[in-house]
Write a structure and sequence with these properties.
- GO terms for molecular function: hydrolase activity.
- The protein is an alpha/beta fold.
- About 35% of the residues lie in helices and about 15% in strands.
- The protein has eleven helices and eight strands.
- Strands 1-2-4-3-5-6-7-8 form an eight-stranded mixed sheet, with helices on both faces.
- The longest helix has 14 residues, at about 80-95.
């Protein structure tokens, strides 16, 4: 099957209060916002956009600091706190004249959506989250026992991290290939042209630094990613998809979901890892349609 490259999509930009966001848009129907994680950018949904656009108005932004969205002052870590990203998404909906939307995400955008469905409940029809991250996650993620998987989050705190990873295209490829494949059920999934598109993205000025700043602002040993509002129960209807082979957000951590949601369903994918939208696109597309077309 021919790879649908980034240039094969329709690209837009939106000037918000303090950042200019890039996004891709395709399809007609109820608005569906697809949010990416790290290491990623909007294109990690490239196998989902077309099929979902048959049923939805699909909008896929790059979060601030990623892809072709603006990089705020990279020396100011506070500009990359997830609460700012939440407001970016709310402002993007306002910019597009969208009162309510369906939202789906994973990895960092799992945290964003946990916050968004509380802070902007009136803007959310339903949500879907791949490999959920909720309050309580950070304690397990940063624990000594999980350090073999989470070490990179502390490496990202170092000034030299950006310079080392961005020192050459080969260094960039080696670093990001490790996470893309190690976190997948199929350890050789990302290769060839697809991998090079990820490298192209991260070699753009500021993209490595922007992604690392998300860890500096939200998942250092001293950061506080959650607000009191984030620790309340949400009545938003949420569909969770969990890869049983995800090493960085293990399936046993789904017990953390129960205290925070009163209306949710949980689906486990036996042969799936961290990047279910890429590993199991047909499965993800079906479950999003099943949930969001009700």
């Amino acid at each position: 099957m021919t790879l649908r490259r980034p240039e094969h999509f329709t690209h837009h930009h939106a000037q918000l209060a303090d950042v200019r966001l890039h996004y891709v848009r395709e399809g007609r129907g109820r608005p569906l916002i697809l949010l990416h994680g790290w290491p990623g950018f909007w294109w990690e949904w490239h196998k989902n956009i077309g099929p979902l656009a048959e049923s939805f108005d699909v909008i896929v932004p790059d979060m601030r600091g990623y892809g072709d969205s603006e990089k705020p002052d990279l020396s100011r870590v506070d500009l990359f706190h997830l609460d700012r990203v939440v407001e970016d998404i709310a402002q993007l909906l306002d910019h597009l004249g969208i009162e309510q939307a369906l939202l789906a995400g994973h990895d960092y955008s799992a945290l964003v959506l946990h916050k968004f469905v509380r802070k902007h409940r009136d803007k959310v029809i339903q949500a879907a989250i791949i490999n959920p991250i909720t309050p309580g996650f950070e304690g397990r993620y940063l624990s000594p026992g999980h350090f073999p998987e989470s070490w990179y989050s502390q490496f990202h705190q170092l000034d030299m991290a950006v310079e080392l990873v961005g020192s050459s295209r080969d260094a960039c490829r080696t670093y990001f290939r490790h996470f893309l494949n190690h976190w997948s059920h199929d350890k050789g999934l990302f290769h060839g042209e697809e991998l090079e598109i990820y490298v192209d993205n991260f070699m753009k000025p500021g993209n490595i630094h922007g992604g690392f700043n998300f860890y500096r602002a939200n998942l250092s040993i001293t950061s506080q990613p959650w607000t009191p509002l984030d620790r309340t129960i949400s009545d938003c209807r949420v569909t969770f998809l969990q890869g049983m082979g995800d090493p960085v957000v293990p399936s046993v951590w789904t017990d953390l979901v129960t205290p925070w949601y009163s209306r949710y369903t949980m689906h486990y994918v036996q042969d799936g890892g961290h990047f279910l939208m890429r590993e199991k696109p047909a499965y993800v597309n079906k479950h999003l349609r099943d949930a969001f077309l009700k």
